[in-house]
Design a protein that fits this description.
There is one protein chain. This protein has five helices and eight strands; from the N terminus they run ββααβββαβαββα. Helix 3 links the parallel strand 5 and strand 6.
Length: 196
Amino acid sequence: MISETPTHRTAVHEQVVEGFGTVRVVPVHPRADLDVIHTWVSQERARFWGMREAGRERVLEIYEYLDSLPTHHAYLLHRDGRPVALFQTYEPESDPVGACYDVQPGDFGIHLLIGPAEGEPERGFTDTLLSVFLTFVLADPGRQRIVAEPDARNAKAIARLTGAGFVPGPEIDLPEKRARLVFLSRDTWLNGLVEP
């Protein structure tokens, strides 16, 4: 059976952002989305994603495995019908990161990869997509704290997350990288202490 194309797939979240467009969060269908995902993760700009050398079949295998887990999910974000970002979520207690810090009730993990820009870079582009995704994630009242663990060498990602209100935590050693934990509390986000 062929999956729906991403632009026709049912969104789990849709948000109109004034001056930016309509952003839809749609679940990844590994086989249907393989071209987009493989193109993005194999670029030098995505080196911290850890799949630069992975071939198409390996990327498909990884995302089919993620798709089989009830604790991990992958999403494409579309802006006005065009894929622009890949986001993943996970429950820390069911992920290797959970062995590296004291997981609290309501912790919820995210990974993010912004797709390559078409044309000139657009001011506020990444921040807007992150804001939409956090709005989606925190719509679930059980999620009290967002956890991310960018590669410790990825100063740009760490700065982006701390600029969005995440608080730096310790560095940890994961099987594939040394990472910097960062945390965003639900209260900080929803009480407007961070400008989305």
